[in-house]
Model the fold of this input.
Amino acid sequence: MPLIRFTLRQIEAFVAVADLHSFSAAAERMGLTAQAVSQMVAELETILSFRLFDRTTRRVGLSSAGRDFLASTETLLRHVRAVESAADDVRNRAAGLVRIGAPLVLASTAIPAAIKAYQALRPKVVVRVRDIAVDALVDAVAAGDVDMAVGPDRPAGPEISRLALFDSPWVLWCSPQHPLARKRQLSWPDLRDQSLVAAGRDHERSVAQMRLNAPEDLRVTPVDVVDNISTALGIAAQGLAATLAPAYVGVLATLFGLEMRRVLNPETVRKVCLYTAQGKALSPAAEGFAEHLAAWLPGWLEAAVPAAPATPPPPVRRARRAAPEVPARSTRR
Done:
């Protein structure tokens, strides 16, 4: 028997009459007339080919077949209400699955913290994190492997939407014993003849780009390239080299005991962006989480990442104190 032969409204009418033992009372509960309820029950009986109620002038009671059928209909309506509730949750961004990609530092620090904050508001939303290399973020979004990605600015075609979340300057991370740690801030000439390690091909390209933008006599070159930022930080922690990386890696760099120094004249700033697929609608849950990230991440950056040492103020010249005036000696005796 095809399921579409009877309607949920007919089932509701049957359950209401069975519960209240009255067509009039069932009609009042459903906001219908007694005649409409009676007609729906009669149509259902015709479809089922058995009688649901024994009707008398005084009362309406379930037939034997109606009693056997009632439990199944009550179970059906409970499942329907659960479906309605799930639809409400999805529509109101209260439930759903969100897949997000991010490079190692953000995937292990900022994104889990953002998920925890969001689940306090939307406990039924499940967010899955996938750590992805920086140079593969855009491709992962375009391929549909993730709903969105967060990471440093990358070239993106027209099929990708990019929203800038915050700026993060490139800084030098070094051990407290490193010679460059003695300076509160650096300029590019200070990095010449220093051992530098870059993390990943993306960072290698970024350092190379900074090198191209600098005058020839100020250019720096990494002496080593490693795959993961944690490896570069570990090398720097032992004083074997220093590393150039965005300031937001400070959430990990400080755990290695590293110190941050700004590199100025010029200072290179990198944007961290949210990537989504252009022309492909996010689910309500993913849309809500994306809005949460855009509002939440800048605050995380301010709280979690140490501030760069401030530029020391110029020395204040103190004016010489004038010698106190000596009162003139009276000539009167």
The chain has a mean pLDDT of 83. Residues 3-91 form a domain with the Arc Repressor Mutant, subunit A fold (CATH 1.10.10.10).
